[in-house]
């Protein structure tokens, strides 16, 4: 009996020891081996929103397959990845400390109206529609030039020069003889001949009243204004139709302004204009728009606006500078953002939206009119959203962000070479040389997270400083890319040990 009791005690002791060991082993086991329900879903279980080509991330496809843009397979975008409802992916996370260092400033998308007036500098010029060209009506000799010179302001009818016209003498004598004969038909014919010889109607009237021939004719100013040119001297011989003077009227003048093309759509002929000139402090001159010239200056991207102003007192002198304010047509309520928040790449218009907690997202927008430092947004944003108004150039959109994102995500644990590359805006990657040229290289590169690119084979342009000496096809290399415009250029190559 005692022997059985001892055997039973030994069995109990062995079971206790085994239970203790099993408990200790379970306690030390990794949590992932116990909590199988928390494992990340496989690619088959994840919901795919769309497929896209990393080289053209804005183009979305409903089915997988080969990219129509590059020789590579389309990449899925999963629902649990960073993407908004419209399919714009590429969210960026930046620490608050780095945001402060970058000087990021925010603005709220608000609904309102653009300023109802367009302001622009302008200069006063002559009214080119109010010009008189003075020409001689008959051949003769200049007997006298009155004391006139270019720049003189003269009244209408002021004498300019006297011309002796010998040809008129015989025709006038013939007319007077026929007048005395009483033959009305011949008299009318002789009078018409005088007109054809260039004799003014006023001179013919004087001939009829005085009955004496007149061979000297005084050329007068047909309008009041300023003499722009007076190309005649005493003793010169003039021919019929010769230009002797050019006179520009001063009753009205033009003001011409260069208005940004983004504001041109709100202007129209006939709009009222107010002008302020430094020469007349506190005084406003009123005018109207008479023309929107059809050509835009390709350098300044501005539209020329021509305005007309009355100048009865001749206070507005060509060459003066003015500040004009054009009243524009009333505009509807629209979404407005600071103009500085808009990034114009030439191909797209991007705004960086701040989503809180250091999250930023580039959004493509459709800009409208611009005035007073504000730009209207026709599509892409909603009222109340916060956008980056300063420092957004460091948070560029999608793949074009590469160098900046690399710099933003650099940590103290990175290797010195990687830190230097990120700070300089370079993208580090590795791959295998497939083909070598004088100005390009084809590489089968590994995935490039900074560009959101999968592994693929593609050509790159070579920078002159990138040495390919000693490299051969099949050589494994580490390389650095630099973004130049819309292209990525290999600026550094380094051979690595081993072959693929």
Summarize the structure.
The protein has eight helices and 32 strands.
How is the secondary structure organized here?
Elements: H1 2-28, H2 31-34, E1 48-53, E2 56-61, E3 75-78, E4 92-93, H3 96-102, E5 105-108, E6 110-112, E7 117-126, E8 131-135, E9 140-145, E10 153-154, E11 159-164, H4 167-181, H5 184-196, H6 201-210, E12 216-220, E13 225-230, E14 237-238, E15 243-248, E16 252-260, E17 272-277, E18 284-296, E19 302-310, E20 321-327, E21 334-338, E22 343-344, E23 349-356, E24 359-364, E25 366-371, E26 374-379, E27 386-390, H7 402-408, H8 416-423, E28 426-436, E29 440-445, E30 456-462, E31 476-484, E32 487-495
Parallel strand pairs: 30-32
Antiparallel strand pairs: 1-2, 1-3, 4-24, 5-27, 6-21, 7-16, 7-20, 8-15, 9-11, 9-14, 10-13, 11-12, 13-15, 16-19, 17-18, 17-20, 18-19, 21-26, 22-23, 23-24, 23-27, 25-26, 28-29, 28-31, 29-30, 31-32
Helix pairs in contact: 4-5, 7-8
Description of the structure:
The protein is of the alpha+beta class and 500 residues long. The protein folds into six domains: 2-38; 48-78, no CATH class; 92-115 and 333-396, conserved putative lor/sdh protein from methanococcus maripaludis s2 fold, CATH 2.40.420.20; 117-127 and 251-327, Efflux pump adaptor protein, beta barrel domain (Elongation Factor Tu (Ef-tu), domain 3), CATH 2.40.30.170; 131-248, Beta Barrel (OB fold (Dihydrolipoamide Acetyltransferase, E2P)), CATH 2.40.50.100; 403-495, OB fold (Dihydrolipoamide Acetyltransferase, E2P) (Beta Barrel), CATH 2.40.50. The chain contains eight helices and 32 strands. The strands form seven sheets. Strands 4, 5, 22, 23, 24 and 27 form a six-stranded antiparallel beta sheet that branches. Helix 4 (167-181) packs antiparallel against helix 5 and helix 7 crosses helix 8 (416-423). The two termini are 76 Å apart. Residues 4-40, 82-89 and 397-420 have low confidence and may be disordered.
